[in-house]
Design goal:
This protein is an all-beta fold and 338 residues long. The chain has two domains: 6-111, Immunoglobulin-like (Sandwich), CATH 2.60.40; 115-335, Jelly Rolls (Sandwich). It is 3% helix and 42% strand. The chain is built from one helix and 28 strands. The strands form seven sheets. Strands 16, 21, 22, 23, 24, 26 and 28 form a seven-stranded mixed sheet that branches. It has a six-stranded antiparallel sheet with strand order 15-25-17-18-19-20, with no helix packed on it. Strand 19 (204-209) and strand 20 (212-218) form a beta hairpin.
């Protein structure tokens, strides 16, 4: 038999009732979204005499589906990461104690960003990765390849970003792609089962996953080259581009789950400046969409550098013929001699 709505216990005399908690009050001024994360805050109403043992926070699936529990505990502020971009979520909270579960709060509606901004993640990189310039510049102190991730996570939609090879000496082979958060950080990207990558030298490229090298393709990178990464989670494919042309066939199919932009480099490769990255979640479309070219200048850059990037063709227009409406990242690479 479950708990009744009213229980009694004795503290001296007379008996004191224990009732279910009242409706929590959402603190809308503290509720917010950032990229694909939402933060919710609430409190117990004033002059409440009922005890509160904890709270249950529920969120729908961002597509009008059923609510599900995303947090149970005593905290009154909760951040939920890894949601879909460009999606509307409904959230509600209720309190509970030994007497039962109280009523739901009002529902708050939160819209995640339609554009993803990401830089390098200082918490994800190998210890040999050195980040500076507000996490927009990555270098490496080791001759061995080390991995660093972006701060965004994608699980739905179409996302495209580009990287610009600013200087290239000594024929290093940086790797570009996507990875799970748990990817190994002390090896080239793609050597374990948590990353899907293309590594490239001055003459050719290979796709790599689980240390399996496939689809050797002629055509490498040099100073001024552009590497594009297209993650299409509508079609569950990953495709790479060099200088606006698709490099080899579709690199990987049946990719599903949560992915983060990823890069591996050694001390022969330096990323001196990262222009903030944007990626937009889009529904499938039968025809190309126009690209709205906007400023992607990061805090550490200059207007002159941005103009130079545009003149050099380093601000992307997206892969030819793909239904993409995204202004994405430009990462400036220098590949240096040891």
């Amino acid at each position: 038999m479950g708990p009744s709505q009213n229980q009694w216990f004795l503290v001296g005399s007379p008996p004191v009732p224990v009732t279910v908690p009242p409706v929590p009050l959402l603190q809308l001024e503290k509720c917010c979204t950032r990229n694909n994360s939402v933060t919710l805050a609430w409190r117990t109403p004033p002059f409440t005499h009922s005890t509160v043992d904890g709270y249950i926070l529920e969120l729908d699936d961002g597509d009008g589906g059923q609510f599900r529990e995303v947090y149970v505990g005593k905290e009154t502020l909760c951040t939920i990461d890894g949601l879909h971009f460009n999606s509307t979520y409904n959230a509600r909270v209720k309190a509970f104690n030994s007497s039962g579960v109280g009523p739901y709060s009002k529902t708050v509606v939160l819209q995640t960003s339609d554009v993803a901004w990401f830089t390098f993640d200082p918490n994800s990189g190998h210890r040999d990765i050195i980040l500076s310039n507000d996490n927009q510049t990555a270098t490496c102190s080791s001759y061995d390849d080390r991995v660093v991730l972006g701060t965004a996570a994608f699980s739905k939609g179409v996302h495209y970003w580009e990287l610009h090879v600013d200087r290239y000496d000594n024929h290093p082979d940086p790797a570009f792609g996507v990875a799970r958060a748990s990817v190994g950080k002390d090896m080239m990207l793609g050597k374990d089962d948590k990353a899907w990558a293309m590594y490239v030298d001055s003459n050719r490229s290979w796709f790599m996953h689980c240390s399996s090298h496939t689809n050797r393709t002629e055509g490498g990178v040099c100073k001024g080259a552009t590497v594009g990464v297209l993650l299409d989670l509508n079609e569950h494919t990953l495709t790479f581009f060099i200088n606006g042309q698709q490099q080899g066939p579709t690199a990987f199919s049946h990719v599903d789950g949560v992915f983060m932009p990823a890069l591996s480099l050694n001390r022969n490769v330096q990323v001196p400046r990262t222009l903030q990255a944007r990626a937009r979640l889009l529904p499938p479309a039968p025809a190309p969409l126009p690209v709205g070219l906007q400023s992607a200048l990061g805090k550490g850059g200059s207007k002159e550098a941005a103009r130079g990037a545009v003149q050099a063709g380093s601000l992307p227009t997206g892969p030819p013929g793909h239904p993409l409406e995204t202004l994405l990242s430009r990462v400036m690479f220098s590949c240096l001699s040891a």
